[in-house]
Design goal:
- This protein is mostly helical and 139 residues long.
- It has a domain of 86 residues.
- It is 65% helix and 4% strand.
- The chain is built from 4 helices and 2 strands, in the order H-E-H-H-E-H.
- The protein has a two-stranded antiparallel ribbon.
- The chain is globular, with a radius of gyration of 16 Å.
Length: 139
């Protein structure tokens, strides 16, 4: 069986996150999928409201860090590869919103938690996987 190229998997996972996130946001804002959505000019839990320019630069820095990290470490480690791709895709998805709309569209509302979106979910899952990987590597 041919070994899969880690870079292709990394780029594919990140691209899938971006496409699904942006497609869901489009379908919801055009009311093709009838879900209630909110807008957020801040970061997670609505912190840093109105700091869109700062959050754009933070997003760009995160993308740069992930790409640097990927080529130094994550390329050869499957968990690091996937977790980095999830964070990258989620960051790009929310960055597209911030740059084009001036806010992020959130549409998943669990009532007991602040609203969020696919990109936020990917970032959270990717970060948790990355923490798991880093703890596991230390042992």
């Amino acid at each position: 069986m041919k070994k899969k190229n880690p870079l292709i998997i990394f780029l594919l996972v990140a691209a899938i996150v971006v496409v699904v996130d942006q497609l869901m946001k489009l379908l919801i804002t055009k009311q093709i999928i009838p879900l209630k959505f909110t807008t957020n000019t801040g970061a997670g839990f609505s912190i840093l409201q109105g700091w869109n320019i700062v959050l754009i630069w933070i997003g760009i820095a995160v993308i740069g860090t992930i790409l640097l990290y990927y080529f130094k470490i994550a390329e050869e480690k499957p968990i690091a590869n996937i977790s980095s791709a999830l964070v990258l895709g989620g960051t790009i998805g929310n960055l597209i919103d911030r740059i084009s709309l001036g806010h992020v569209i959130d549409f998943i509302d669990l009532k007991i938690w602040p609203s969020f979106n696919i990109a936020d979910s990917a970032i959270t899952i990717g970060a948790l996987l990355l923490i798991y990987y880093l703890i596991k590597e230390k042992k």
